[in-house]
Amino acid sequence: MELVQNIWTRYGFRGNPFDTAALSASAGALLPIAQAIVGRGMDSAESKKLLGVLRSKGGGRAVVEGDIGVGKTTFVNYHRYLWEVEAADKLLTPATEIALPSGWSVGEFVGNIIGAVLGKIVLVKGEKYVHDRPLLHELFLLNRVFTQRSLQIQASLFGFGGGMGRSSQITMPEPSEAQLLTHLRGLVGEVKMLGYQGIFLHFDNLELLSLRNPEETRQLFEKLRDTLQIADVYFVFVGQRGFFDEIISPLERVRSVFSGFPIHVPALSQEKVLEAIEKRYRLLAADPKRFIRPVDGELLRYLHSLYDGKMRFILDAVTSIVTNLPNTGPGTLDMTAAKTFLAELVMDRLQHALTRREWDVLWEAVKLGTFTNADIARALKQHRQNVSKYFNALLSKRFIYPHHRDGRQIYYCASEDVRIIRDIPIKARKTMFI
Length: 434
What we know:
By secondary structure, the chain is an alpha/beta fold. Among the domains are: 53-138 and 175-267, P-loop containing nucleotide triphosphate hydrolases (Rossmann fold, 3-Layer(aba) Sandwich), CATH 3.40.50.300; 350-430, Arc Repressor Mutant, subunit A, CATH 1.10.10. Helices cover 47% and strands 11% of the residues. The protein contains 19 helices and eleven strands. The strands form three sheets. Strands 1, 2, 3, 6, 7 and 8 form a six-stranded parallel β-sheet that branches. A three-stranded antiparallel β-sheet has the order 9-11-10. A hairpin with a 2-residue loop joins strand 10 (400-406) and strand 11. Helix 4 packs parallel to helix 7, helix 14 packs across helix 15 and helix 16 (356-368) packs across helix 17 (373-380). The longest helix is centred in the N-terminal third of the chain and has 20 residues, at 106-125. 38% of the residues are buried. Residues 143-172 have low confidence and may be disordered.
């Protein structure tokens, strides 16, 4: 067997057209976001709302909401790209989105922003520029910095590496929150001296943080309220449906500094998903006139229905099918064969990952759609405490996940990648653990 990385080249592509990673804001990405984006253009409702925030001179704050996998990160990345590359009034944006874990202090929040922005300045202007600017040089040294003779980025700086000069280690005292805020304001000034009008910050995937610890998340935003008003900085937070109403709205002081509404990103229509995948084919094809579609449109329409239009899971399903197919000549797999093969992959995975009781709980979860622990117990005619062990096991294995909160009650749903079991014949399900 010849060991070469040729799965997608056999179909005529330079890369995987079903890659589940969010489209990148980088101008040099294999899939250019400005060409590959579908359904989220400047005339879409969600784009118009976000543009209203970003066009407001002096800074802004917005919440982008939507279900997991619908393309929220790609949507924000598209606007980061537009405002850094194509806008007349450009905004500098870090190379990647910033995570917002639980337990952060204001100082950690500001410190990570400084590191992300400074890292982008290093990429844009080079290390020499940073070390020639007194404030940037000071910020560079605020964290433990390990350097080597190479000009490559080698060390840790608020989560971003940095290297300069001779090999050495420098330890600096941790600055106070007030000092960090002063440094951030100064950093904004340095960014504006580079010709930008401000900074565009993207905080991603707040789902788990807010669903599991809503009160802690509210307290964090309460503490961040003044920080969020730093001039010429645009803060965009990405979370689950209902994040704004649950976390931001109850905090009157915080709500007053945000845009007055959340920006909802819906799942793409079936037509738009097919269009997006067709665009990926043509952008990645070595020859746009000669390539082979790995699966037919009928399968894509089925997956759209199965996963409620969530692009990430549609892409992941096709990738799983193609990468696990026997090493035969390339061709377009028809709907029946592809669906059967995907179901076999999922069943094999579950058979090795679950106990019989966990399987029973998962099957009820798939049937119910959204549910609570009590709903599962009623469906199985069991006491709630007898189901909790298996329910929590499925949570830890990510076969179910929190969907939304209603007051104190958390509702869950089955992970999209196992929902195909609802279409598996009853006989196959019953014999799974025999």
